[in-house]
Amino acid sequence: MKFRTTALAALLSITLFSCVSTKKFKAAKASYDELNGKYTQLQSDLTNCNTDKAAANSKNQLLQTEIDGLNKQLAFLKENNTSALKQLQDLSVISGQQADNIRKSLDNIGAKDSYIQTLQQSLARKDSLNMALVMNLKGAVGNIDDQDINIKVDKGVVFIDISDKLLFNSGSYVVSKKAKEVLGKVAAVLKNQPDIEFMVEGHTDNVTYRGNGVLIDNWDLSVKRATSVVRVLQNEYGLDPAKIAAAGRSEYKPVTSNDTKEGKSANRRTRIVILPQLDQFFKLLEPNKG
User: Fold this and answer.
1) Alpha-helical regions (H) of the chain
2) In what order do the strands lie in the sheet with 244-248?
3) pLDDT for 226
4) Which of 204, 272, 203 is nearest to 239 (CA)?
5) Architecture of domain 146-282
6) Is-above-0.70 flag for pTM?
7) Could you report the per-residue pLDDT of 124-176, keeping only the tens digit for each?
8) 55-59 contacts: CB < 8 A, separation 24 or more?
């Protein structure tokens, strides 16, 4: 009898140990699967980044080759023009004053060529900064479905498109709890760029909005959704309101046709536009006015 009791106790210990080990194993496997998923996403982002970087480097090399060729042509023309001026002056075809004026004009051509190169370098730097900003934003929001949030650069401007199904309930302008988490991640990146200014745009599809006494139409709805997002960024995440603008686009800036359910869904969105810093660009022009 004592032997049976001892054996039973041993069997229960083995069973409990096996149960605990299985739970730990499943928990460890779930954690591994989650980390592996994040690793795969990061690998994909890195591959995309390397591809974009390679394309940019190739483009920069082609531009540099063209610039080098133009510089050689300019040097050749300057040399020939200087020689021709001396010959004309020696033959008394032109006066010394006229020769000086022509030299100044040629010098201005060289200065303008240098200025153009400076602008090209500034634009290339801006493109690099935009690409770095996009990668930071994508890394911050993680693996959210691309149909819900899309971050891209188009014609030198960074756009963040967030679907309204993520941000709001149908016909509402109250930001959802899940959306606030996403906006918080975007705000954290923007907060690290204190010089950045941006606009929040509300967009709707072409379905007529039935007013509820507060809102009249799609214009009102798009503006109200934009200002709701702005308030979250300002009041809950501390972004400088002086750097933010809010706008409503109603149904008049669609990204695709409203003829299908999918098209309408794509057009109902809120867009954050990183505004170009035109004041810095104009500062580049100031020393060369006239």
Assistant:
1) 2-90, 96-141, 164-167, 177-191, 218-231, 261-267, 278-285
2) 149-154, 157-163, 269-275, 197-203, 244-248
3) 95
4) 272
5) 2-Layer Sandwich (3.30)
6) no
7) 555 666 676 777 777 777 765 556 888 888 877 888 898 888 898 877 889 98
8) 56/127, 56/128, 56/131
